[in-house]
Amino acid sequence: MIEIGRTIISRNVFEQHFVCDLLKCKGACCVEGDSGAPLTPGEAKTIEKEYSRFEGYLPEEHREEIKKQGYSVIDDDGDLVTPLVNKRQCAYSFYDGNGILKCSIEKAFFEGKTQFRKPVSCHLFPIRITEYKNFDAVNYEELDICKPGRACGKSQKVKLYQFLKEPLIRKYGEEWYKELQIAADYLEKG
Hints:
By secondary structure, the chain is α+β, with helices and mostly antiparallel strands. 43% of the residues lie in helices and 16% in strands.
């Protein structure tokens, strides 16, 4: 474990190779799991406010579920999350023409329709952050659905923390990431 600021980062964030391989995993992270994507209260408000900007990418069934459940829900663990369709698939996801699940929020972002890219928990995946009173635990969640990502990262020689540089900076800032890079360089030498 490495401590930076108020975060404690597991070593596998530094050691594991990873680059998302959507052509192989088909966006399985939008369907796997027992709950929707974790949201901050601010993200839930932003999704509600910006919904009309990405609603058009969603299948009718998803729009109906969002009307029924709301823009965000509280799951069985008491966490604020995205709603699910058929108790499985994130309501904000859709299949593109190649059978790959994509995020409607992110599609709107890339098309310049919103400044909000997607929930930070999705942007950071497969890193999961658990917030405690005095620190955040930053961990790699190793799932079978991400085997293609591990293989792709290994072949490209890209570590998980490098692949997720942008969302890590989004979450913790540039200075924090610079310290993370120093820690990674130290671990690499040692």
